[in-house]
Amino acid sequence: MHALQYEVTLPADYDPGVIRARVARSGHLLDDWDGLGFKAYLLRERGVHGSPVNQYAPFYLWNTVEGMNRFLWGGAFQGFVDDFGRPAVRQWTGLAYEEGAGGDVTGSRAAFAVRRRQPVPQGGELTTLMEEAAVEVRRLADEEGAVLAAAAVDPHRWELVHFSLWEHDAPKADGDLFQVLHLSAPGLDRLPRGKQW
What CATH number is given for 2-195 in this structure? Predict the structure, then answer.
């Protein structure tokens, strides 16, 4: 499992309706993308739910590197680059994934997402730190309204990312709160559950 995210921070007076229309027009294009676990089309609006910025920030969990590479290098990602410029694309190696207690994720009403990036603390034993991240994924997935939860690590930056989808705007998770505009989930049933090691 591989996590990937890029983001574009938009001007303060940017009309978020432009992003909503973009996703409505083209979000379905990845609904059957081979190798993709899911893509959450995410938006933060300045002044809404405490966001200080307007930001479009899709988040992906991939089942295969081939599917991810075909997206990045096969032409699909070029549309984003043409419209917004070439963003920094962050990648993390999967640590853990769990589905929420609510049942069928693909038929879910995932309306919000929470993303929290944090440094891996210095001086701790890596096995313990990664185990704690996996336990946090299970805890989040067990919360009421949770659709799914995942954690991944970038061992170059030593950064953890926790990601969760929620049915409501009062999640039991800390981090940046995003609206989910669309969820493409062609390979969600193939994402390995639990720890990834």
Answer: 3.30.70.100
Q: Where are the domains of the chain?
A: 2-195
Q: State phi, psi for 188 to the nearest 5 degrees.
A: -60, -40
Cα separation, 157 vs 179, in Å, equals: 27
**What would the two tokens of residue 170 be?**
């009062």
Instruction: Say which residues have a Cβ less than 8 Å from residue 89's Cβ, sequence separation at least 6.
Output: 4, 5, 6, 72
**Segments in the chain forming alpha helices (H):** 17-26, 65-73, 78-84, 126-142
Alpha-carbon distance of 158 to 155, in angstroms, equals 5
List of residues 6+ apart from 93 with CB closer than 8 A: 1, 2, 3, 152, 153, 154, 155, 196
Dist. CA 57–CA 61, nearest whole Å? 14
pTM of the model: 0.95
Mean pLDDT for all residues in the chain: 95
The pLDDT tens digits of the residues spanning 112-123 come to 999 999 999 999
